[in-house]
Amino acid sequence: MLVWTALGLTLSLRLALALTRNGAERGPSASAPQGDLLFLLDSSASVSHYEFSRVREFLGQLAAPLPLGPGALHASLVHVGSRPYTEFPFGQHGSGAVVQDAIRAAAQRMGDTNTGLALAYVKEQLFDTAAGARSGVPKVLVWVTDGGSSDPVGPPMQELKDLGVTIFIISTGRGNRLELSAAASAPPEKHLHFVDVDDLHIIAQELRGSILEAMQPQQQLRASEVTSSGFRLAWPPLLTASSGYYVLELVTRAQPGVVRRQQLPGNTTEWVWAGLEPDTDYDVALVPESNERLVGPQHLRVRTLPEEAGPERIVISHARPRSVRVTWAPALGPAAALGYHVLYGPLQGGVAQRVEVPAGHNSTTLQGLSPGTLYLVTVTAAFRSGRERALSAKACTPPGERSRVPTLPDAGARGP
Known about the structure:
Organism: Chrysochloris asiatica
Protein name: von Willebrand factor A domain-containing protein 1
Subcellular location: Secreted, Extracellular space, Extracellular matrix, Basement membrane
Order of helices and strands: HEHEEHHEHEHHEHEEEEEEEEEEEEEE
Number of domains: 3
Number of strands: 20
Largest sheet: 6 strands, mixed
CATH architecture of the largest domain: 3-Layer(aba) Sandwich
CATH superfamily of the largest domain: von Willebrand factor, type A domain
Domain Fibronectin type-III: 217-308, 310-410
Distance between the termini: 140 Å
Number of helices: 8
Strand order of the largest sheet: 3-2-1-4-5-6
CATH class of the largest domain: Alpha Beta
Signal peptide: 1-18
Shape: flat
């Protein structure tokens, strides 16, 4: 009897181990978040070999604990250089450890820093089934940069956000904060990190949690990309093209009797409302209509941002031979604008300089000017939508005081 009991326990243990091993080989469970995660790595010659190795190690550590595998997250790595280069496509590596090894094995490509070209390439990769991308899953881009680019990044980055891609940006400290804040997903304090290359490990856990949060399927009607004149709505697939349609209703609290309606096919999962009033509360209703099953409506209230009006008046004061005070109105708070940049340079030609001013402030003192010189000063307000509004004025510094040179007595002169 004891022999049969021991034999039964042994078989049970072997069966349990086999089931555990099979479960591990199958990868993450069905409840794991699903999505396509693309790492965009600055691999150009502007990055030193040391910085590249540190960033590469950081991305590997970031990816290792993620639930990567079939039915879960898929990862891809693209290099920024003279031309974009795919290190590995989506779905090629089935676990975080394998992805970590693949990132560590990546070699620096060198060349120019054509980030805008790489972003256009990334847009295709994120939605191309030939590259392993999947439809209907969240898309996340993690861009690590030293702050410089040989071509514009704003337009291609906005196209990615318009397609619903969540943008995380990690700058090693030399990037323009206003420009990167506009490029990252909102809010920038959650999606933009300025970290020294040797301290990247500090943000790894927080960034990993934000990525997983962005990958979670959304079950409710939600708004994003809110501007002064519109916003984007998105919702989960509640119907199909053959099972019904949606009716979107939009109404302002100031005019409850005026309703804007839009009918959409059942396979639609997003819509952009445009041409709206700034600084206004809107009530949105998503009404699924289906003869096959009852799906309740969803409601949401969205407030548009204040009007994106840039500086309307610039005042030059406290003029000194080497400095002037620049004040503008109105002053826009952080809810309306990301901040300002003030560009100034000699009107007759010379090197232009730039000063960054945070939102909520409306003045700055320009230092290091030349006496008796006419300057052109341009104040630009940068908004979260990526738009900018600018106004220019002239500022003239007074001549500097001439130094008095004492008169030396004549060597041949004699006193009384």
